[in-house]
Amino acid sequence: MKYRHLIFANLFRKKIRTTLTLGSFAVALFLFGLLAVVRGAFNQGLEVAGANRLVVVNKVSIIQPLPISYMDKIGRIPGVTLVTHANWFGGVYQDERNFFPQFAIQDETYRQMFPEFIVPADQWNAFIGDRQGAIVGEDLVKRFHWKVGDRVPIKGTIFPGTWEFNIDGIYKGSRPQDDTTQFWFRYKYLEERENPYWKGLIGWYTVRIDNPDNATRVAAAIDDTFANSPWETKTETEKAFAAGFVKQAGNIEFLLLSIGGVVFFTLLLVTGNTMAIAVRERMRELAVLKAVGFSDGFVLSLVLGESLLLAAIGGGLGLALCKLFTLRGDPTGGLLPYFYLALPALILGLLAALAVGLAAGILPAWSAMRLRVVDALRRV
Amino acid sequence: MAIPLAYNVRSLRVRWTSTVVAVLGITGTVGVFIAMLALAKGFRATLVSSGSPQNAIVRRAGATSEMESAVTTDQVHVIEDMPGVARKGAEPLVSPESVVVAAFPLKATGTDANVQVRGVSPQVLDVREQVKIVAGRFFRPGLDELVVGRNVARTYAGFDLGNTVKFGGGTWTVVGVFDAGGSAFDSELWADSEVVKQVYKRPLNVYQSVTVRLTSAGAYPAFKDAITSDPRVTLQVDRETEYYEKQSRAFTRLVTFLGVLVGGVMSIGAIIAALNTMYSAVAERAREIATMRAVGFGAGSVVASFTFEALCIAFIGGLLGCIAVLPLNGLTTGTMNWQTFSHLAFAFRVTPALLIGGVIFALAMGVAGGVPPAIRAARARIAVALREL
Amino acid sequence: MVRVDGRGTGLVHVRGLDKKYQRGSEEIHVLQGLNLDVDASDFVAFMGPSGSGKTTLLNLLGGIDLPSAGSITVAGDEITHMSSSKLTAWRARHVGFIFQMYNLIPVLTAFQNVELPLLLTKLSKDERRKHVETALGIVGLADRMNHYPRQLSGGQEQRVGIARAIVADPTFLLCDEPTGDLDRKSADEVMDLLGRLVREHHKTVLLVTHDPVAAERAQTVLHLNKGVLVEGRVAEVR
After folding, report:
1. B274 touches chain C (CB under 8 A)
2. Contact by Cβ (8 Å): C172, C205
3. For labelling alongside A197, which of A138, B230, B381, C26 has CA 20 to 30 A away?
């Protein structure tokens, strides 16, 4: 582009103003990235939900258990290809603030049910053979500096006493959004030591179906099977189950959109105003360009080009800074396990920045294009 | 002697587009900042006001929340005999309680949310003095009757007085509404704990917690020591206010963190807007400034003058931000209390302290955005500036 | 009595004034050992080609620029070594500037523009009002006190500028091309006014111009040539 130097020269004319405008874009896009991250954190459950998985909980209350005897019955329902179960352990590791989810799992069926979690075969085999074995997620290993072979004591609260586990393996997620903060151990171990109240009871079932389209039918079939029994069930898709939680967290989407809206509106005003001032100052030179023979369209493109360039550089900078910020991981210490800026968000952000650049630059560019040479040169 | 203030005020008016832009930048920042902190404050206030310093809550040692705790009837009797327990006549004012969760559809979205159902002792109103029945009556012991918190009817469908509700495998009648002063209890359903345990098939001689009314707030240390040193029981004791304060921590911490982060980043944007406006102002008015300095106004007067202009912008922006946020005060919203796994309704709390803080924050942004351009204005070489066209 | 030979004493007393400045890689030696003595009630015009340093000289005399070497003494005060704040205070008291571009503050009325220098004094509001009205009266614009600059013609704006320059009764008036932007008629009015200020109000006026018609009104015309002043025609003040 042979006119590149013209654009750059103009931007460097008033370095402070250019820097400040770049700064405005960077700030707005940093915030955009942040909001996208928070939204992602809240919706994580939705994103990782298996399309062909259902969750079966006690209908009366989510914290009530279900009989383990249901496992076979559920397995025989048409459309069901796999069943597994888990219990929420809720123990404390050293300090109450070191929160992470602990599940007593069914063993083999659990691993099959969640193929997105990857455990090396030898580690899994060690786990199966170890009564007190545990498989822990990558994030936990990073947080507590554990390694395979460590012995980890956890103080039970729902299941009192001190429980000791051997770390036999580490699981990784196959996607960036996968939750690797979980701690799995064997239901058999829980069975040994739990008090009589919990005998034969598990927390919830996860069910795999052959075809996602059958979800509603199979869910209804499961619930019908156990209707009017002492332990009635409520079955829904994993996604619906996760969505329920998000909805309960409140109208987060609205909050985020409002903040985002305010930020972008302000940004538009600031940059638009700055560009208008800049063009006003340059009326004379733009007039000279026209007098020399450059077309109206050229002047329009020149001004718009500067505006878009500022948007792209500033916006890109802001997004890059946000990405860097998220690489440090969750800054709240456990409250937002998924703190990640995904590629779609980055692209959307860049497009938004360019859109603002376009909108802010169009009016000044238009007036520059319509400029009458004679008027501009006469102005002192 | 100072450059006349009329000069600054009128200059702001003349360049009103830039002024408005800078003002809006500050308004947005202050507004968002106060709103988020008001959200956190509201949540915390709701939980903290749920407790009374004169009450103690007793749970099994090691339990991190009520849900995970278990206290047997024998242990309840031990607690009743402890020093410091208030009495009504001969009856000790204790309420052994069981909490469960039941799902009901939210009026706002139609989807289910978990509501905390608290099985209480019939003398709970004496133990929790801040709770008052404001409609209908209290439940009769042994019956499937409910009294609901004042936020419940507002948040969930079907809880009007006289309605019947089905949950837990039983059918219940709503016989009364209570007002718990804007605390967490306002989002709960209360019923007789014995009935709750039966319906939910819980062991009849186990409760989850015991709330004790003490003779005075000062009686707490003695009460706590007596229980924790008693070999017959392994229990933990918390002042009710501290128990709830801990519950609020996670959410409050998250929202405050987000509020500070978003507010902080936005403030940088607002400062940039103010700087841009003021630098442009200085550039456009270079000759005026040089003239005033030629006339004899010193560098200090010029700096003060431009800083004053920036502060005007900031102050107006801060004020507008506060005004914009005020309607939020008292607005109820709800979220999930992860400690109790249930939905909790609370209101935004915009306090005078927050508003004043917002204005000071705005003024600080004004200084940051106004001083550098002001100094540049004062430092410009007069002779050069006079010739600027 | 005006002298440029380095002898004599005057209200304005300049010796060996040097001014150099950088233009890119070149060093331009604008004033070289310039001498000047001006007495009270003198009316002097400085002329010279473009770039000869007339405005530079005026700026130095008015304390808004500092020389590379030499001394300037006005009414006994040596201003070349004054600190910036002292210089500012000195300027407020002793100098009245009149600019080619008038340099009025657009958002202030004529009255407020003229009042500006008085804000630097300890006069009360009423006293200031009296002085402003007097000054505007002298320049013939008492009826336009509350107009804004954009509501005045070029000539009227310059007269407001003059009123501002005289309102605090400064020791001398420095005028940089005061008629440069005006039509013939307005230019004449402004020069008449300056003449009257000298004759009737005993002001000391130093004027820079390249308009010979304007220069003729002065009592002494000096040419700035190769960095020093050279005497030109002396004329009776009309």
Report:
1. no
2. yes
3. B230
Which residue is listed with tokens 């948040």?
A: B155
ipTM over 0.95? The verdict is no
Backbone angles phi, psi at A230, to 5 degrees: -65, -20
Tell me how many domains chain B contains: 2
Same domain, yes or no: A78 and A10 = no
Q: Is residue A29 part of a domain?
A: yes
Query: Residue C143's Cα: distance from chain center in Å?
Result: 25
Inform me whether the C-beta atom of residue B291 falls under 8 Å from chain A C-beta atoms: no
Helix B5-14 and helix B299-325, axial crossing angle in degrees, nearest 10: 60
- DSSP letter, residue B140: P
Tokens representing C11 are 């209200």
Strand partners, B332: B347
The CB density around residue A159, as the number of other CB atoms within 10 Å, is: 19
A41 located within any domain: yes
Q: What pLDDT does residue A169 have?
A: 92
What count of residues does chain B have?
389
Where in the sequence is the domain holding A372, given as residue range(s)?
4-46+250-378
Distance CA A26, CA A91 (A): 43
B contact residues 65-94, partner A, Cβ 8 Å cutoff:
67-69
pTM here is: 0.72
* CA angle A150–A154–A158, rounded 5-degree value: 155
Q: Please give the mean pLDDT across all residues of chain B.
A: 86
Q: Are residues A357 and A285 part of one domain? A: yes
Distance CA(C164)–CA(C98), nearest Å, equals 8
pLDDT digits (tens, 9 = 90+) for A227-263: 878 788 889 888 888 877 777 666 666 777 787 787 7
Comparing CA positions, the residue from A36, A46, A45, A43 lying closest to residue A179 is: A45
What average pLDDT score do residues A182-186 get? 92
**Does A380 score more than 60 pLDDT?**
no
User: What range defines the domain where residue B116 resides?
Assistant: 62-233
Strand partners for A220: none
CB contact under 8 A, B262 and A259: yes
Of A361, A363, A362, give the one whose Cα is nearest residue A271: A361
Paired tokens of B261 = 């982060």
E strand spans, chain B: 55-60, 71-72, 87-88, 91-92, 94-105, 112-120, 132-136, 145-149, 164-167, 170-179, 189-192, 206-207, 209-213, 235-239, 332-337, 342-347
- Tell me the two tokens of residue A325: 């910020």
Q: How many domains does chain A have?
A: 2
Residue C50 has pLDDT above 80, yes or no: no
User: A135 has which bridge partners?
Assistant: A169, A184
Helix/strand/coil for B230: coil
What pLDDT band is residue A126 in, cutting at 50, 70 and 90? very high
Are B266 and A38 an interchain contact pair (Cβ–Cβ within 8 Å)? no
Interface test with B, best of C97, C103, C174, C181 (most B CBs within 10 A): C103
pLDDT at C235: 45
Report the chain A residue with the minimal C-alpha distance to residue B341.
A63
B10 touches chain C (CB under 8 A): yes
Among the candidates B233, B258, B284, a domain finishes at B233
